[in-house]
Design the sequence.
């Protein structure tokens, strides 16, 4: 496992920058401090965004294959207009009657299987996961949480302590259990489901033996921070059933896969043919406006709501709702899922073609427009694989294309463009990746 | 203590509503569920907001003396324009170089005493308090938290468990200690500081005896959910010193008093002549846009930032920063603090005059434009006091003026208008309160 928590970042002294930038960074460090890290060896600065493109102060265009928050494209004019229009009329909170709040909640719930019919709004994905854990603990009466071995679920105290991805310095809860995924362990597809389920059963047994019990299996169904492990479809189903048998809830963290990124479905869990008890939403829900939600089954949601007040000042305010409503309308009207599926397939085909010519690509995985591309040939040591991935990412950044890395060893390219990505953008990305591979690996 | 967690609310069956509203409420209950409660016996519905006023679908105007989020007034055109303009240009995250982020962080920090020079952005006050507790626990190496006996600090798991205000159904942490405030206990002003400090020393001793230690004293310096207890200035200083002696940090929760509400200062803690280690911000920071922050001393902030990654997707995005920047500019340019102080004094004088004529007013407390008005004459049983407060609040609602209740017994009127409140608005409020007192108490 990487000891550097954010390998793809600027390190003072490593890169010589123009005075304008180094002076700004010095001021930044002086007031924002160590929590704030800049992406890329040579940080980027953008003054304008439009669709798939970001522009720096000199007018240079960068193709965005990384940002999943503006999934309808940067500064989508209809989304911005919906937000501005509502903000100029009224921003009511949820303690006032507000038809738009109810309308949107109903529209949102309709995109889920019938069993899932309740929603509580939040402002961020972290708040969604934090709330979902609270609900699961009330509903189950248990405290234990099962996550994947390199999971990241957010920043609050309760979710940080079930996020092994944050590294050794952030203490894990005594109530969390990590399970290895079949993919990174090299388990063949036909044994993946059994491998996954067996570990979950073993984790539950251990939690029970200690009187902790299982409150929830909390997973991102495309396992993005573990390195994008999406196949085989359905491999999580037996594990989900085991958690329910043990009295726990299944929480699908859809902050990354949700709202159509996987292309074949609106929600990532659908790929696996399972229906969660609770689903957590965030990032692309408002195309950048801070809004999230917990969507779930009536039983646990009502049980929690009846006994524990949950009042989130900003969450569900009319401006956020109007913005998210515009996003959902455009997502359907512009057939964004179909585009994510088609462009994802096109990208994958291009990558597979490239892998035949460059042995720097070890494996390719994707669901729609979330792709993981493992760097370096089989047998390369971990540090070498990570070094190559970082070199490729930064060569592409210098070439005007934005991606980053993921996975336990951070040697997987994380390719996650806005969902409006077209084949013309895919071609530009593929050409840039090819140049980077030639430059880095020869 | 009240057994009803939100006494001022709509209860199905208690009020007969028009079909349009009761149908909407039925749909609302069906999708949003039990977590969502409507304020007032007869819920309100607004379609337009402007300055101090909210308008219902029939065009009826309501004077807002309750909402502290839009502290510059509802739908402030300059704030909305700043948000819309930035959203149409770029919304960059904090991993990209962004001069506006640094500029605003510097401007914000300048409003604090010199010792406080670092900022980390969040999206909500709950996220701010959750992060501040994480920082305090890392910096102190301890786990214990001291709060006031009816404190509310937010919705995340970690802050809910140190928020006794949430009631018996929400379990408190074994690491939290509650202290009674001198005011509600009837302690004279000249003994208030000693009373406060003695309890804190006793709490620390108990935490140490159990090996928990004290990580933080977490208080809202106007103790809004305890019923607005602001005097005597300085009474918390000895308790703060005791916490530091014990190895803990002082966290000032400025979500309610901050950004000038107390009128005499930008930050509520300044009233007490103390300098916190960490300060948490939220509600009015973006006049409604979801943005908050933890501002603090370099020592604990850098210690946390260096070891624990804190990456909050939406927090510090350029749109939120541009919005908060416009708020700070207007706050200074329009002399909002001076207005809060002057109008607060005017309101208090009017209330004191009224108290001479109506024995329904037991006590009046305020700091700037946060006022607490205790209902019912001395000796009235708790249920009677709460009932009167609720009757007054709902009579005023029917009269077109919005306030609510606070305090352990919810028998204190919570009067908290936007900070642009003028004497003409104060006059309207006072006249409505007088009508309500006559109606309710005769």
Sequence:
């Amino acid at each position: 496992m990487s000891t550097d928590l954010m390998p793809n970042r600027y390190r003072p002294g490593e890169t010589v920058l123009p005075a304008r930038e180094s002076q700004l960074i010095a001021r930044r460090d002086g007031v924002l401090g160590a929590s704030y890290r800049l992406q890329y060896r040579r940080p980027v600065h953008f003054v304008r965004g439009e669709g798939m493109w970001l522009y720096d102060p000199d007018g240079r265009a960068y193709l965005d294959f990384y940002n999943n928050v503006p999934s309808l494209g940067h500064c989508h004019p209809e989304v911005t207009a919906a937000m501005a229009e509502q903000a100029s009329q009224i921003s009511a909170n949820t303690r006032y009657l507000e038809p738009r709040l109810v309308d949107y909640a109903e529209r949102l719930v309709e995109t889920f299987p019938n069993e899932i019919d309740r929603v509580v709004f939040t402002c961020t994905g972290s708040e969604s996961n934090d709330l979902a854990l609270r609900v699961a603990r009330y509903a189950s009466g248990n405290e234990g949480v099962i996550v994947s071995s390199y999971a990241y679920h957010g920043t609050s105290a309760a979710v940080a302590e079930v996020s092994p991805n944050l590294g050794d310095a952030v203490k894990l809860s005594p109530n969390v259990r990590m399970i290895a995924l079949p993919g990174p362990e090299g388990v063949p597809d036909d044994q993946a489901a059994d491998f996954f389920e067996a570990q979950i059963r073993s984790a539950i047994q251990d939690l029970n033996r200690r009187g902790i019990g299982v409150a929830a299996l909390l997973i991102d169904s495309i396992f993005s921070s573990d390195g994008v492990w999406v196949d085989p479809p359905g491999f999580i189903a037996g594990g989900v059933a085991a958690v329910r048998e043990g009295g726990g809830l299944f929480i699908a963290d859809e902050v990354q896969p949700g709202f159509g990124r996987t292309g074949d479905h609106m929600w990532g869990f659908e790929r696996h043919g399972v229906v969660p008890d609770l689903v957590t939403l965030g990032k692309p829900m408002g195309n950048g406006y801070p809004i999230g939600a917990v969507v779930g089954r009536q039983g646990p949601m009502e049980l929690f709501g009846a006994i524990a007040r949950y009042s989130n000042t900003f969450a569900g305010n009319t401006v956020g709702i109007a913005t998210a409503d515009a996003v959902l309308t455009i997502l359907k009207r512009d057939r964004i899922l179909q585009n994510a599926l088609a462009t994802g397939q096109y990208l994958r085909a291009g990558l597979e073609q490239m892998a035949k010519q460059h042995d720097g690509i070890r494996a390719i995985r994707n669901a729609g427009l979330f792709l993981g591309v493992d760097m370096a040939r089989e047998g390369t040591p971990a540090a070498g694989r990570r070094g190559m991935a970082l070199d490729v990412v930064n060569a592409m950044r210098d070439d005007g294309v934005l991606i980053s890395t993921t996975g336990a060893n951070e040697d997987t390219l994380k390719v996650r463009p806005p969902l409006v990505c077209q084949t013309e953008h895919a071609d530009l990305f593929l050409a840039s990746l090819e140049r980077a591979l030639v430059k880095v690996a020869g």
